[in-house]
């Protein structure tokens, strides 16, 4: 904690040098006084000093932009999330602010809501049972390595990827999550994504392009897929087709932490099962909001606010920042900025 706080002070002191250099300076807290001459190639830009990550784990995240922790969330907790998801699908509980999404192939059909028609629930922060996920100490322990001690849960999802209808609409195109977020800096944001069952390429596991977190936010748009594409599933238009892809095979309870600039997506579900994961995007409460008008993220603001207007009647001139300010919930420390 003290290190993180001194990290904050250093950042202010060294503001003009930029955050990367400040990160380098605190990467060697025992190396004595910080003098400009002691700056070297920054060793750690994406992780913070504490005793949670091993050196190997830290280096892996720095290099690749993600880190899988095996067996982090207990079977008992996952069972509780499953039960609550079933209750939501049956309409037994209707958490405020939560949206229920159906696959685009059945979006306009009349099916009664059930586990077979719900492909994703989003913004479950008012559902105390599902929101427990965002407060689990074993999860937050890792989150803090990326965000520091003041932690906000900014975006929550339970994704129930359905068996593909044959149109491959169950795919999630390659994208960067930062495209959806009106706050910065990106290095103080991390996603925790927990497999609720075994996931591999057959049921559409997460697919990542290692190291892409070192790049910038790219423009996103709808992929031109013949079979259709789900609303708000924007993808990157120009990515390097030859960039190596890694499919993350994970067991129930395994959790991947990844950077919001990491390019990732998920393939189609060729099984008859509904592939379930639960996830939360966390950010340091010390982050600041940005105005996305005039940027490539305008498309997100337009769609999110458009949907909010249709479903909840929020004013059409609401900003993306206001949406997140309203949704975000503190899970640890102090709500300083966000
Ligand atoms: C990092 C992270 C942030 C990444 C992402 O966010 S990825 C994108 C995730 N986004 C979402 O999941 C969107 C959240 N979902 C929602 O807001 C809702 O589920 C809605 C899609 C608006 C559906 O709300 P609902 O109350 O069911 O309203 P309706 O059934 O009346 O539908 C409203 C209009 O939307 C259409 N729709 C619903 N689901 C989909 C779909 N999957 N793909 C394409 N279009 C869809 C639906 O046909 C209807 O269209 P119209 O009849 O108005 O033309
Ligand atoms: N044409 C495409 N444009 C953009 N993204 C794609 C395209 N095809 C696949 N992807 C995405 O690439 C990632 C990796 O998918 P992957 O190749 O594992 O599965 P798939 O393309 O659905 O199936 P297949 O195993 O048949 O290639 C996923 O995010 C998927 O949505
Ligand atoms: O299919 C998945 O679980 C990945 C979803 C995803 O990347 C997202 O919703 O941002
Ligand atoms: Fe994503
Ligand atoms: Mg493919």
Automatic annotation (TrEMBL):
Enzyme Commission number(s): 1.14.11.18
Tagged with keyword Aminoacyl-tRNA synthetase: no
Pathway: Lipid metabolism; fatty acid metabolism
UniProt entry keywords in alphabetical sequence: Dioxygenase, Iron, Metal-binding, Oxidoreductase, Vitamin C
GO-annotated molecular function: L-ascorbic acid binding; metal ion binding; phytanoyl-CoA dioxygenase activity
Keyword Nucleotide-binding: no
Recorded catalytic activity of this chain's protein: 3-methylnonanoyl-CoA + 2-oxoglutarate + O2 = 2-hydroxy-3-methylnonanoyl-CoA + succinate + CO2; 3-methylundecanoyl-CoA + 2-oxoglutarate + O2 = 2-hydroxy-3-methylundecanoyl-CoA + succinate + CO2; 3-methyldodecanoyl-CoA + 2-oxoglutarate + O2 = 2-hydroxy-3-methyldodecanoyl-CoA + succinate + CO2; tetradecanoyl-CoA + 2-oxoglutarate + O2 = 2-hydroxytetradecanoyl-CoA + succinate + CO2
Names of the cofactor(s): ATP; L-ascorbate; Fe cation
Biological process annotations from GO: fatty acid alpha-oxidation
One Pfam assignment: PhyH
GO cellular component: peroxisome
Annotated family: Belongs to the PhyH family.
Protein's UniProt name: Phytanoyl-CoA dioxygenase, peroxisomal
Species assigned in the record: Ursus maritimus
Gene (UniProt): PHYH
């Amino acid at each position: 904690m003290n290190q993180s706080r001194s990290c904050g002070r250093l950042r202010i002191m060294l503001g003009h040098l930029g955050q990367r250099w400040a990160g380098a300076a605190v990467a060697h807290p025992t190396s004595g006084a910080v003098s400009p001459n002691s700056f070297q190639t920054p060793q750690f830009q994406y992780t913070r000093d504490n005793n949670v990550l091993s050196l190997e784990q830290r280096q892996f995240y720095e290099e690749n932009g993600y880190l899988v922790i095996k067996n982090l969330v207990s079977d008992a907790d996952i069972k509780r999330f499953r039960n609550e998801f079933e209750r939501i699908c049956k309409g037994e509980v209707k958490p405020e602010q939560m949206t229920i999404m159906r696959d685009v192939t059945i979006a306009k059909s009349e099916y009664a809501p059930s586990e077979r028609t719900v492909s994703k629930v989003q913004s479950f922060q008012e559902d105390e049972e599902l929101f427990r996920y965002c407060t689990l100490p074993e999860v937050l322990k890792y989150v803090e390595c990326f965000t520091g001690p003041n932690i906000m849960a900014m975006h929550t999802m339970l994704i129930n990827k359905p068996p593909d209808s044959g149109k491959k609409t169950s795919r999630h195109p390659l994208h960067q999550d930062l495209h959806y977020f009106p706050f910065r800096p990106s290095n103080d944001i991390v996603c925790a994504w927990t497999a609720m069952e075994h996931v591999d390429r057959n049921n559409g596991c997460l697919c990542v392009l290692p190291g892409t977190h070192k790049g910038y936010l790219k423009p996103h748009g709808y992929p031109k897929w013949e079979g259709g594409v789900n609303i708000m599933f924007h993808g990157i238009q120009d990515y390097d087709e030859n960039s190596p892809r890694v499919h993350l095979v994970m067991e129930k309870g395994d959790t991947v932490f990844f950077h919001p600039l990491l390019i990732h997506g998920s393939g189609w579900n060729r099984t008859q099962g509904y592939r379930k994961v639960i996830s939360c995007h966390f950010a340091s409460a010390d982050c600041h909001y940005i105005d996305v008008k005039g940027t490539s993220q305008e498309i997100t603001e337009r769609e999110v606010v458009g949907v909010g207007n249709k479903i909840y009647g929020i004013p059409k001139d609401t900003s993306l920042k206001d949406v997140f300010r309203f949704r975000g919930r503190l899970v640890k420390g102090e709500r300083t900025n966000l």
